[in-house]
Structure formats: structure tokens, C-alpha cells
Write a structure and sequence with these properties.
30% helix, 17 strands, eight-stranded antiparallel sheet, alpha+beta, 3 domains, Alpha-Beta Plaits
């Protein structure tokens, strides 16, 4: 059955090339809002699903791209393991291929790694329908160009993911979240100080005058760190961190309910807080700043400030993305992107213009 599904995907790609017709590569569709607008005939990857191999002793899981992420994480929890990147689903239908293609990581990212850091190998169909395999199912892989990492965040513009091998990590033995009342400036200062110490911090979030700090690891280390950090213990903290990662926290409501622009600002963790026109929620020890923009927010000002602080700005959610969803690329990087696109999708049919309008 799986071979027939794969053959059908190949045939669809080749037919689209012949007709010069764009394809929208889609799994569960939970991240359709992300990136530029999409147009074309849908290439549904969900029929190509199922866990192929899971060796908990080797800390590696391999699954087809159409597999629901919830099913993968459920299998891993049963073996006392998890995905360290804590990738958001944004809906129950989220698939493994969609998570890797989007390349988005959750609250644990600075401490456990990004999506691209846990991808060991991929199998994919390029823009001509050719079946390609890169990387492997082992922890150490030095087989030439690291395409598995490139596929993370490419939003399906380079190929259709069909199988992915991921690195797993053990679930922490203990976790707790401490909450402190503090200003945004104090939150940035403290989280950076903690980042330079041997503390088992696994997530931080500052919003509306409250700083939440999650501690994960061996019980004695977590207990000792909680005493050093202070504050009060948060009840039901797992639900809180899920709300932050999945953007069900009330902070994100204006962007999802009324279409207010939501910016994702990646900067140096030590960047001094700036009023950019709207309330901010700050994660990753200061390195990730969400901005629900108000009427005074200006795209040029936002991107200029972010670039001056060593980062990039993404228009994450918005009804109008005419300004571009992603930060403009320097010419050298733009040329590299074009060369990769031309190599893997010479007809330009896969998720056309999803990253950049002219890409």
C-alpha cells in the first residue's frame, strides 16, 4: 500500500511538471497560515503515514511524513522519550512532514535544540519526482552535504518529504516552573545570567509583568535550582507551556481572532527591550520576542531594529503579508536559495512563492 501511495505522489509531481502547474504540498494543513500565500493543486501527503522503525535503545525514530506528530510523540512517551525541540502542532492533524518543513521549535528550543538539530535523515521526492535519500538513521552522520538540515524550514519548496529519521531524548525525571514578578528589563537580565550558570533551565517566558522559568532534569538539581531562582511554584505548568508553544495562550488571541499582525522576532538574547508598537511576549531567555502589533507598529522600524540586534523578523500571522512574511535576504543568500531551488525543483512547481514572492 505504501509503495502505491509513493508512486501516486511521484506521478502527480511529474504530471504537474508537464503541465507547468504549481503544487501545494500539504500534510494536516495546520500551518497553512505560515509564510506567503499558497496557490495551486494540493498534494496531500497524509496517506503516506506510519512509524517505520523505532529503536528506543538507539534514541532514533523513523516515520513516514504523513504520520501525525501526536502519534509519534505518544509512542515515544510510552518509552520514556520525547522530541527535544518541542515543536508546535497548531492542531491535532499536524504531521511529521509539516513539522520538519516548517522548522518551528517550541519553548525548549534553546536548551534542547531546534528541529534541524534532531533530523538525522530524510527521504524525499524532488521537483521532478525522483526518489532521493539523504542522511541516515544513526546519531553520527557525515555523508556529505547536510540536506536533512536544509529541508527543515524550507516549507516544502525543495521537495516533498516522505520519510524522516529523528533523534530522541529521554523525558526529564523531574520538572517544575517558578513564577516571578518583574519588569521586562529585569527578565532579560536574569534569564541571561541563568543561562551562564549550570542550572537546568528548559524554558522561559515573560509576559505582562510575570516571568515563568521551567526547570527540568534530575530531581535534586531541579530542587536546588528552584531555591536559587526563587519565586512561587506554578500549578499545572505543563498546560501553561503547551499554551505558549501552541499559541493558545490569551496573549496570541488578537492575532488569531481579529487578524492583528503577529511578529516573530529572533534577536540576540541580550538585546535591550524596545517599544516597537505593541505588547511583547519574550521566550528563549530573551532570544525570541513575539510582538502583537498595534496601530503604531511599522514594518520598516521593526525589521531595522531586529537587524541591528543580530536577528531577523518574521510576519508570523497576518491577513495582509504584502510586506513579505520573511526577512529580506542579503543578495548572497538569495542567490544560494535560488541555486538550491533550481537544483531540486527546476520547474518551480513545489510550494511556489511560499518563502518569498519571487522564489
Amino acid at each position: 500500500m505504501s509503495d502505491a501511495v509513493l508512486a501516486d505522489l511521484q506521478a502527480r509531481i511529474r504530471a504537474a511538471v508537464a503541465a507547468k502547474s504549481p503544487l501545494v504540498v500539504r500534510g494536516g494543513g495546520t500551518k497553512d497560515f505560515y509564510g506567503q500565500s499558497i496557490a495551486g493543486e494540493v498534494l496531500d501527503t497524509t496517506p503516506y503515514a506510519g512509524i517505520i522503525d523505532y529503536d528506543a535503545t538507539e534514541l532514533v525514530i523513523t516515520a513516514r511524513a504523513g504520520t501525525r506528530v501526536a502519534d509519534i510523540e505518544s509512542a515515544m512517551r510510552a518509552s520514556g522519550q520525547m522530541l527535544a525541540c518541542e515543536a508546535p502542532h497548531f492542531g491535532a492533524a499536524a504531521t511529521l512532514g509539516g513539522v520538519v518543513a516548517a522548522g518551528l521549535s517550541g519553548p525548549r528550543r534553546p536548551y534542547g535544540g531546534a528541529v534541524r538539530d534532531i533530523v538525522l535523515g530524510v527521504r524525499m521526492l524532488d521537483g521532478t519526482g525522483e526518489d532521493l535519500t539523504f542522511g541516515g538513521r544513526v546519531m553520527k552522520n557525515v555523508a556529505g552535504f547536510d540536506l536533512p538540515r536544509v529541508m527543515a524550514g524550507a516549507l516544502g519548496t525543495l521537495g516533498v518529504l516522505t520519510e524522516v529519521s529523528l533523534k530522541c531524548v529521554p523525558l526529564p525525571k523531574a520538572e517544575t516552573t517558578r513564577v516571578l514578578e518583574c519588569s521586562v528589563d529585569d527578565a532579560i537580565r536574569m534569564t541571561n545570567e541563568w543561562g551562564g550558570k549550570p542550572l537546568p533551565v528548559s524554558a522561559t517566558c515573560h509576559c505582562a509583568g510575570l516571568l515563568a522559568v521551567r526547570l527540568s532534569g534530575a530531581a535534586p538539581a531541579v530542587e536546588a535550582a528552584a531555591k536559587k531562582i526563587g519565586g512561587t511554584a506554578m500549578a499545572n505548568d505543563s498546560a501553561f507551556w503547551e499554551s505558549v508553544g501552541e499559541q493558545t495562550h490569551r496573549y496570541f488571541d488578537p492575532a488569531k481572532d481579529t487578524g492583528v499582525p503577529l511578529w516573530r522576532l529572533s534577536v540576540r538574547s541580550t538585546a535591550v527591550h524596545a517599544d516597537l508598537g505593541g505588547e511583547q511576549l519574550i521566550e528563549w531567555g530573551g532570544a525570541l520576542r513575539w510582538l502583537v502589533a498595534d496601530g503604531s507598529a511599522n514594518t520598516e522600524t521593526i525589521r531595522k531594529w531586529v537587524q541591528a540586534n543580530g536577528g531577523h523578523a518574521t510576519l508570523f500571522r497576518a491577513r495582509d503579508k504584502a510586506a513579505g512574511a520573511f526577512h529580506p535576504l542579503p543578495e548572497t543568500l538569495r542567490m544560494l536559495h535560488r541555486r538550491l531551488k533550481a537544483t531540486f525543483d527546476p520547474a518551480g512547481i513545489l510550494n511556489r512563492a511560499r518563502l518569498y514572492p519571487d522564489f
